[in-house]
Amino acid sequence: MEMILPIFFIFTLLFSYSQASVVDFCVADFTLPNGPAGYSCKNPADVTVDDFVHYGLEAPGNTSNIIKAAVTPAFAAQFPGVNGLGISSARLDLEVRGVVPMHTHLDGSEILHITRETIRAGFIASDDKVYYKTLNKGNIMVFPQGLLHFQVNSGEIPAIAFVSFSSPSPGLQILDFALFGNDLLSELVEKTTFLSDA
Ligand SMILES: *[C@@H]1O[C@H](CO)[C@@H](O)[C@H](O)[C@H]1NC(C)=O
């Protein structure tokens, strides 16, 4: 009895723990208000397999723009199943000479996986050292969290890549928009960038 009682209690404890505390997922519910930690969780009883499947990366993005490129995100905002899981994805389409301009994801590191053609990609470390490479189909490259990076199609046909992030909402800030597409007075932009208005 002296041995059996503690063992019984341990099993009871383990069983009730696994029943009560394990949360497998937190599918984002956009109909509920956001909390400080992000999206609210959808009621697990209403979750279906379709919450864990996303079709938005099947089709190429629209590259009829000045950068000749499209980034199609599958972040928590588009793919509620990744909410709370620390991961997300996106698709890159780059026309010939298309560019994903210098940008950063403040909340996540990135792995780029080339699936078509050749992409020149790189990042700038916080000591301003540059790391870049020309990548071919099947190659992958990692971009550490928060660092400025870019991708350029250096091939002869449109390029495709898929990216994975270590965050369900990695964010995206494009350097040129941050510097020149903001509400600051031109005078202040000139002063703080040492560039002339022209
Ligand atoms: C792609 O974007 C361009 C420019 O915004 C637009 O004119 C065109 O209709 C779009 N194409 C498709 C297929 O959505």
Helices and strands in order:
Elements: H1 4-20, E1 28-29, E2 40-41, E3 69-74, E4 88-94, E5 99-104, E6 110-116, E7 119-124, E8 130-135, E9 140-143, E10 148-153, E11 159-165, E12 173-174, H2 175-180, H3 186-193
Antiparallel strand pairs: 1-2, 3-4, 4-11, 5-10, 5-12, 6-9, 6-11, 7-8, 7-10
The structure holds 2-acetamido-2-deoxy-beta-D-glucopyranose (NAG).
CATH topology: Jelly Rolls
The name of the CATH architecture is: Sandwich
Q: What is the H/E string? A: HEEEEEEEEEEEEHH
| Largest sheet, spatial ordering of strands | 3-4-11-6-9
Count of folded domains: 1
Compact description:
The protein has 198 residues and is α+β, with helices and mostly antiparallel strands.
Word description of this protein:
The protein is α+β, with helices and mostly antiparallel strands and 198 residues long. The chain has one domain: Jelly Rolls (Sandwich). Helices cover 16% and strands 31% of the residues. It is built from three helices and twelve strands. The strands form three sheets. The chain has a five-stranded antiparallel beta sheet with strand order 3-4-11-6-9, with no helix packed on it. The protein has a five-stranded antiparallel beta sheet with strand order 8-7-10-5-12. Strands 1-2 form a two-stranded antiparallel ribbon. The protein is globular. The site of 2-acetamido-2-deoxy-beta-D-glucopyranose (NAG) has 2 residues, from loops. It is found in: Secreted, Extracellular space, Apoplast. Belongs to the germin family. Pfam families: Cupin_1. It comes from Nepenthes gracilis.
